[in-house]
């Protein structure tokens, strides 16, 4: 059967190429190589270790999100997490989330949609933590005086984004706790729109929230919140360590600023591994601090490399341990 043309994949490739051209367009490659050679790679090794600690903490949080279904051991959760992030780096359309759910469901004998529903809450936790980080960054970072207008705009935009995201979280909590009342309210709000919209959206929301299980015990909720903060702390520290590897000692708010930019960069459609968009966002973030171009490009390459290649190697190792192949999990992701 002839394989259909995947417009999303090729659009992502074009976008990646565009940003790679912007990223490398003025670079002296000899100077770039000299800068890469001058780095202290001991800091980068520590950065890789901390990155894997953040993945382990993701497995910890995931265990708490799945407790209402089954207490799953880390021996299953951690490999599934690593394989999922490897798949996100190698496969298009962020199939890693589906792959992560499939691998765990296969090993623990749970239905894949139920496991995937837990990842929806997982991502909401990430989003809310990043929004808090965004606010903290914008109100502690001091940009140059010539960027005062951009600084004010970013703070306003960040505050609006946080309020909207907080509103979404509150809506989902109400939808879970007071499903009938919340769906009735949604129906009232949709009255000015065509009836077909209400007839499609309300059953969809009901079906979606029915599969979501939110931790109810105070201790479990606290564990989810604490692990979310630790996850992003251990994702932040590697950026600061890479900066130190290149002899830069910027305030931690600078690393926070770069990380927030990277989070938004991975939302832009791109080729697998966020190539181009990730690099350019990091480069532009570093340029705010007037870092030389060759150094900024080197740092962007290394930050991407520390989060890209080690998890791919670890992912293939865990695939081998689970007696699975990349082709198998890709087909599972496509099916999901």
UniProtKB/TrEMBL annotation:
InterPro entries: L-PG_synthase/AglD. Coiled coil: none annotated. The chain crosses the membrane at residues 7-27, 39-57, 124-144, 156-175, 220-243, 255-275, 295-320. Keywords: Cell membrane, Membrane, Transmembrane, Transmembrane helix. It is found in: Cell membrane. It is a multi-pass membrane protein. This is Flippase-like domain-containing protein.
